[in-house]
Queue: 2 jobs
Job 1
Amino acid sequence: MDQNINYAYTIGYVITAAISFFNMGYCYAYFNTTTKIMHDQYVHNDKFVIADRDLFNSVISALIPFGAIFGAPLGGILANSGRRRAIINISMVFATACILTTYFNFFALFFGRLTMGICIGAYVTVVPLLVSELSPKSIAGPLGVVTQFM
Amino acid sequence: VTGILVAVTLGFLVPYGTDEDALTTQIWKHLFGLPAAFALIQLFFLMFVFTYDSPSYYETKNDHESYQNSMNKLYSNHKYVAVLSSLLDEQSVSLPVKTNELSWGQLFTHPHRKPLIIGLLLGVFHQATGISSVTFFSNEIFAKGRTGESAEFAARIGTFGTGIAGVLAAVTAIIVAKHYGRKTILLVGEIAMAFLLAFLSH
């Protein structure tokens, strides 16, 4: 049966699901390089912001892991109603939260990042579950690595 | 790790704090919005291309028709799928419905306790290595002891370096995993991490 795996479909599906992990890594890392100019711009425009730049960086960075604490159990519950549906729902909320963070407002950034954190926590539960269930035994190893690599 | 690498690579586009356009640049809007674009691409594919859930999910829901449809998508050998689904039918008739779900109580009893402890410890070790703190604060770490433009440049290069190192480590681990086994790599990694973190905090 191994030679009859529909590789295009299986691998395509796994990569599509693994986009979540790409987004996770991206969101972990992007604030690092932008934090300085963001803080300068908030101060320059007299917008509300945490006055201490290091504290601002720490708080906004930590929102994603903090949200993920609550997102992970939520992901388990969502997975019961279908893994694919769960990812669709989470991605919709995630995309909305990302767009929210593009507004030049501290609270938009704060709640956007928090919601992104919850979504990422949920992804971490649902996506590996879907990938492991989709993968035919013979290529389960390489496909499992795809999520980590993204 | 590819996501982290892309994020730190795009970080080069962000002007330095000392640059004149630092206070007016809108580039961060594009950086912040990019994951939304990827999420929308993912949504498109999940809604219109990959329209079936995993076979295992349909199995637990006893939805044989969707199970077969899903299997037909994953495997092109229809005959095999037909045989398997007929087996599934017989089982569901002769046996009471068996779910793979464990209760919370069962999770902490004999056959599941050891994997649970190992799984939890792996997570704890991963977090305790403190790699996230490097991902989050590499800019500050590499800028330490420098001022002005050289600090910003060092920060960008250093952050980019951590991204590259992450990708290289992942590739190496995949190649080496076949020869030495997962446990050895994990042990070597933890020991190396202990030394490197001591060095980092020095």
Note: Residues 90-98 of chain B have pLDDT under 50 and may be disordered.
Job 2
Amino acid sequence: MTKQLRQSAAEEQGTQATVLVEEQGRTLAAVRTAVPLTHAQQAMIVRRLEAHVGQPLRAQFEVDPSLLGGVQAQVGDQLIDDTVRWRLSALREALIKSGEST
Amino acid sequence: MQALGISAGHLISQLANLVILLLALRVFLYRPVLNMLDERAAKIRQGLEDAEAASQTAAQAQAEYEKCIEQAQREAQGILDQAREEARQLREKALADAQREAQELLEKSRQAAEMDRRKALRAERTQLADLVVAAASKVIDQALDDQGHKRLVEQFLAENTAPK
């Protein structure tokens, strides 16, 4: 579920996707969360993202309270959005589309 | 004859005179009169023949006239029937066109009404969804504590473990 929705979100925000950036041989990953992460959490997220894309990453962490919760990671032109704000946005779209078939 | 006072000579002369008179009458009166009567009869006969011929001509003319009148009536009736048929077809076509246009107008109106209804429903759903999301955002923002944020991060890590 999450993967498919994330891809949809990535397509919707594709124009805003950061162009793949390579710095010192590593791809830049922009990670945003609603609250600051501990060093341990940051390290785990980097490892998960590296495993996901199959290459070493250099992560840049930002705090954005408007995300409400969860993690949003952008690696090159790929956006992985697992935030509460995105879930609420998906809920909003589902509510709007729920009555269109009638 | 003497006793009767009739003279033979006188009788003979009278008979001769009578014969001469008859001959003269025959030559100068009967023949011209007979000729005149024959001519008159011929004229009358010719007049009767001419009258008969005129009568036949008049009858033929009458028949021709009646035939022409009948033909004209048939043609006029044909033209009238054709005009009526064309008028009927025009009326039916106009009626069909009007019905089709009315149907199209009705269909367009129905589609427009349906579109407006869908737009209104979508606007209502959008407004409701915005209210729900705004309310949920407030509740979640106030309800999420450090443990909740931690669980969300762990959930993110758990769902993104599959290597690409």
Note: Helices of chain A lie at 2-12, 39-53, 84-97.
